[in-house]
Backbone:
């Protein structure tokens, strides 16, 4: 139970409290009659249960989940390459805003996906972008580079394992050569296809037995799907301005 | 002095004299010695000691403490640093053991009970004593997101994730197609809340990410559940009839529609989908509110710096310097000149710039939209807020905010739509009590991302506030919890509710690890934060999950579902922005149940707190002089214990004069009229 003295009354001023409120830590056990009881857990015990539960939630993934997350990192990386061009290629303000949001969103998601793999002891793709060139190096979960495994694995341009929606190196070069309205049009057309590919990857993931049991990967895939469908719709409307 | 000011002052003086008379008339009656004396001044009301530097002044939106104490809070699961302003934390209760480390989600309320969703099932708390919530029931039945709603003896729980099972088992579902999987709505009978009985399911094609409960005032036999599902469509082999083809390829497509479930109250097990309205039909190119402020600023800055800005097909393009110099050189040579361009060359270029850009790069008219991709427009809603008392719903649907007519619950009809270039993903909607404003939130990044860092724009992952008039929505402003958070804290606009402060639009909202923010959007163009609570990150070394998923006002308490830490209960504290009387009036509004997506209208019973709350508001706005307000308070306090006949006469006189004042003071007419109405009701008590 909270000590009564801890209660804070705040009137028109703020309190910055460095120590947390004393919490009434409870452990409840459902009884056969349906009632529940509360038993105190110490903060240390609570943290131990919390960590154990988080750890066990990271044991429910499949190989298909890992492949999806690993692939999506490279897929997102190409969206960064395309979006990075917007400020220097005379893109309209609305495309620049869109590109800036794609960079922010997909960089964060790349970090999230790398953390997801690291947490599950999987090799982590490290993204290197140099202009139009994308290189993915696989890093062991502890941060050591695995040069002997997938070193220099090249994700771009017409390679064997093109993921859905990825632009070829020629398409990227064409985008890089465009300016102003032409850049906008190629960017939007390319990004619509690129996003569409990500949505396809989500659908393919969920068609495999055992996927999405890990709530983190279910949320990640669902968010990618719904965010990118939403953005596709927005980009199609933007593109209509150039086709009317 | 301007004449109109003069007139209202005179009237105010007249009222003040009347009040003095009333107060004198009742001075002989006994007064309650336990009652504290009515405060006489603003200083007594709000306390000036909290503002020694005189930093705060009424109406100044920068009144929050500086530097913002929410910045730099120490990390910790149970011992994180805390910053709190104009709120008090009454209790913080961790989840029961089976739910520790599993996401706590949305909240529903029934009587003295809070039902807290969790990805592992749901938890029932008795919050009769907000300082010590008592665990009543933990029900293990995994499914994300376990969005909960309650009506009478029925509890509805959303299931969307791939691991939800019909039998509530915890082992998940390993097959991509399985008869064991539950994605949709679970229905429980909670007649005995200690022993919920699982009475049925309604499976849906996209599962249920969230749902909204519609209590139709014209239908006492049924309730309706509007289902929103954002995950991919299930295979037809798992749930017959599910199709993710485009509607032009398959009229029964599960895309571009919502689902309406009818639940017979007498036979909830017979609940079924009764319609799948295509509320997105023909939705193209909704009205935009123009370029975002940041975009306008960027263009203005470019123009101010003398940069060349081309205007092609309604879009503005700022030319990079190198390219502009190239065009200038061409302009020079086109007139047969040499050397540096002159001012005339710049002018020529500016004049012809649009044509040059089109000629050189084309307008893109050879472009074509991909006929195979998803068609524009939302395929689903994330959340729909139903407000049956005004016959409207607000739909937050992918890239759109919709206004929907729900007077026929089975056949909702879209009446307006808005889009916003700054919005990533429309998440939920909240009406103000009158239904004249609507606030949409943008859950940019899905809630797992740290979207409140110092460099994240204030227009992104924010709320957008619109006014509603004649069936259309007009953009007014953005609101975003403004304290920069670390990259370890997931933060974006999330679930909140209105707080029944009479005459004002005040909302409390969850921002995940950005904490809880209370703000006033009575003026929809100028939302102002008036209270907050925030903790440091759950994890100080990496992005962890945590923070407030939902925070709602319920019968006087502010209840927050903390994703990692459990159930928090807070209370409003009086401040310069919110008086004790306004809080007391808010607490006088009681509901027997509450689901935030089924908005209910606040109706304030006539109380002395309510009358005093209006006086405080007139005082705060400066419409009523401080000493007049003090006399008014004194009169109300004294009359409360006066003999009935005396009270009745004094109040009827007071009400008439308030009405006259309202006629003379359009700026405060609404508050004065509300006060007059309250006083009239008090007269009859």
Residues:
């Amino acid at each position: 139970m909270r000590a009564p003295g801890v209660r804070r009354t705040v009137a028109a001023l703020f309190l910055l409290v460095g120590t947390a409120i004393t919490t009434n830590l409870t452990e409840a056990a459902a009884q056969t009659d349906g009632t529940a009881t509360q038993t105190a857990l110490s903060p240390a015990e609570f943290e131990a249960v919390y960590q154990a539960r988080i750890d066990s939630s990271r044991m429910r993934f499949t190989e298909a989940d890992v492949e999806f997350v690993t692939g999506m990192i490279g897929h997102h990386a190409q969206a960064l390459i395309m979006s990075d061009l917007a400020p220097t290629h005379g893109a309209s303000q609305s495309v620049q805003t869109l590109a800036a949001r794609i960079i922010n969103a997909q960089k964060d998601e790349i970090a999230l996906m790398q953390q997801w793999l690291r947490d599950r002891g999987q090799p982590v793709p490290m993204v290197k972008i140099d202009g139009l060139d994308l290189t993915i190096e696989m890093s062991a979960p502890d941060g050591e580079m695995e040069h002997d495994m997938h070193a220099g694995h090249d994700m771009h341009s017409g390679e064997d394992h093109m993921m859905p929606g990825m632009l070829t190196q020629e398409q990227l070069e064409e985008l890089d050569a465009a300016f102003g309205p032409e850049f906008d049009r190629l960017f939007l057309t390319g990004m619509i296809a690129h996003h569409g590919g990500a949505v396809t990857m989500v659908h393919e993931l969920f068609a495999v037995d055992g996927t999405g049991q890990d709530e983190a990967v279910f949320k990640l895939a669902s968010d990618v799907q719904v965010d990118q469908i939403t953005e596709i719709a927005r980009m199609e409307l933007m593109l209509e301005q150039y086709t009317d | 002095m301007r004449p109109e000011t003069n007139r209202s002052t005179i009237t105010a003086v007249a009222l003040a004299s009347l009040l003095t008379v009333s107060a004198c008339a009742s001075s002989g009656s006994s007064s309650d010695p336990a009652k504290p004396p009515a405060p006489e001044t603003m200083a007594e009301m709000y306390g000036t000691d909290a503002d020694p530097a005189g930093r705060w002044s009424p109406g100044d939106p920068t009144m929050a403490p500086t530097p913002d104490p929410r910045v730099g809070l120490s990390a910790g699961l149970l011992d994180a640093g805390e910053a709190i302003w104009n709120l008090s934390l009454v209790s913080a209760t961790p989840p029961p053991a089976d739910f520790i480390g599993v996401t706590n989600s949305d909240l529903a309320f029934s009587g003295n009970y809070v039902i807290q969703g969790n990805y592992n099932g749901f938890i029932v708390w008795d919050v009769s004593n907000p300082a010590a919530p008592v665990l009543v029931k933990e029900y293990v039945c995994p499914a994300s997101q376990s969005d909960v709603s309650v009506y009478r003896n029925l509890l509805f729980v959303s299931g969307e994730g791939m691991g939800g099972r019909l039998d509530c088992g915890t082992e998940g579902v390993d097959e991509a197609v399985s008869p064991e999987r539950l994605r949709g709505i679970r229905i429980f009978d909670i007649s005995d809340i200690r022993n919920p009985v699982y009475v049925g399911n309604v499976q849906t094609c996209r599962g249920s990410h969230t749902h909204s409960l519609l209590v139709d005032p014209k239908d006492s036999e049924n309730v309706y559940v509007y289902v929103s599902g954002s995950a991919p469509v299930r295979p037809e082999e798992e749930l017959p009839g599910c199709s993710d083809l485009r509607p032009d390829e398959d009229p029964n497509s599960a895309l571009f529609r919502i689902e309406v479930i009818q639940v017979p109250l007498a036979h909830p097990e017979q609940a079924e989908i009764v319609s799948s309205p295509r509320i997105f039909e023909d939705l193209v190119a909704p009205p935009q509110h123009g370029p975002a402020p940041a975009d306008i600023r960027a263009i203005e800055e470019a123009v101010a710096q003398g940069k060349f800005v081309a205007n092609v097909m309604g879009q503005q393009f700022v030319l990079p310097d190198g390219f502009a110099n190239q065009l200038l050189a061409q302009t020079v040579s086109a007139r047969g000149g040499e050397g540096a361009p002159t001012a005339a060359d710049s002018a020529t270029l500016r004049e012809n710039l649009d044509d040059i850009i089109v000629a050189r790069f084309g307008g893109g008219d050879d472009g074509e939209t991909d006929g195979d991709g998803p068609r524009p427009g939302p395929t689903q809603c994330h959340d729909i807020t139903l407000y049956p008392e005004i016959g409207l719903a607000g739909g937050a649907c992918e890239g759109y905010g919709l206004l929907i007519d729900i007077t026929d619950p089975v056949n909702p009809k879209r009446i307006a739509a808005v889009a916003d270039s700054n919005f990533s993903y429309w998440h939920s909607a909240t009406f103000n009590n009158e239904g004249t404003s609507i606030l949409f939130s943008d859950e940019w990044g899905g809630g797992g991302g740290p979207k409140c860092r110092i460099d994240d724009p204030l227009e992104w992952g924010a709320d957008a506030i619109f006014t509603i008039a004649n069936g259309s929505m007009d953009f007014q402003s953005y609101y975003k919890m403004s304290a920069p958070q670390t990259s370890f804290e997931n933060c974006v606009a999330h679930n909140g509710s209105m707080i029944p402060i009479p005459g004002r639009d005040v909302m409390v909202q969850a921002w995940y690890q950005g904490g809880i923010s209370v703000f006033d959007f009575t003026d929809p163009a100028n939302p102002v934060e008036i209270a907050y609570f925030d903790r440091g990150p759950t994890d100080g070394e990496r992005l962890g999950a945590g923070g407030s998923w939902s925070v709602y006002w319920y019968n006087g308490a502010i209840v927050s579902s903390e994703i990692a830490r459990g159930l928090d209960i807070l209370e409003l504290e009086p401040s310069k922005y919110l008086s004790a009387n306004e809080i007391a009036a808010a607490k006088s509004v009681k509901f027997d149940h509450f689901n935030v997506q089924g908005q209910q209208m606040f109706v304030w019973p006539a109380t002395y707190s309510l009358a005093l709350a209006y006086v405080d508001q007139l005082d705060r706005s400066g419409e009523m002089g401080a000493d007049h307000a003090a006399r008014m308070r004194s009169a109300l306090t004294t009359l409360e214990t006066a003999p009935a006949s005396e009270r009745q006469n004094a109040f009827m006189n007071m009400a008439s004069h308030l009405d006259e004042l309202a006629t003379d003071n359009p700026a405060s007419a609404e508050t004065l009229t509300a006060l007059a109405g309250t006083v009239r009701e008090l007269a009859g008590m």
About this structure: Chain A has two domains: 4-56, 61-243. The first strand of chain A starts at residue 14 and ends at 17. Chain A touches chain B through 106 residues (CB under 8 Å). Helices of chain A lie at 43-57, 63-84, 93-119, 147-150, 169-177, 180-206, 215-243.
